[in-house]
Amino acid sequence: xxxxxxxxxxxxxxxxxxxxxxRPQPRPYKRRVYESALAPILPKQLEEEIKQLNNxxxxxxxxxxxxxxxxxxxxxxxELALIEKLNKWIKTEGFRLMAICHTNFVKEDVxxxxxxxxxxxxxxxCDYPSKILKKVFENSxxxxxxxxxxxxxxxxxxxxxxxNISVLFNQCSQYSWIFPIGKFFLEF
Length: 188
Description:
By secondary structure, this protein is of the alpha+beta class. It has two domains: 41 residues, no CATH class; 109 residues, Alpha-Beta Plaits. It is 42% helix and 13% strand. The protein has eight helices and four strands. A four-stranded antiparallel sheet has the order 2-3-1-4. Helix 5 packs across helix 7. The longest helix is centred in the middle third of the chain and has 17 residues. The chain is elongated and about 70 Å long. The model has no long low-confidence stretch (mean pLDDT 79).
């Protein structure tokens, strides 16, 4: 067997790869610098815990870290800040009318347009989680309203004037996904 035949024999041994496959290329240098500058800076202990929780082979990381830090009745710092913001917002805006409404599920763009239409009529739409709204109304005359607040099913409509009640009901009747349950006059 001569060398030529040996060469012919191994001609098709190497792998042919199509031109449609691209070799992975690193991102541009400026982009990598930009991303590293915007990367969150975490304490080492928290960073290690996050790595352990994100490890798919760690069978002991089944519980979410938020439930370990915050129980059912405890609030995160973000939630406490949101509660404080809502309290200030209700007091500073001087709302005199509040209505609790039942809402059905609706597309986000329809909800956004409805919020804008309510705002043009002088009515503010508030659909925060019930846990936060219950804390807002805690130790106030409206503490009993917490029974009506259900996640994803209720919202609050606020009006600055008590005469807006007819406008509120007219606006709600234009939509098939929102139904007023009760109305109250506020005095915070």
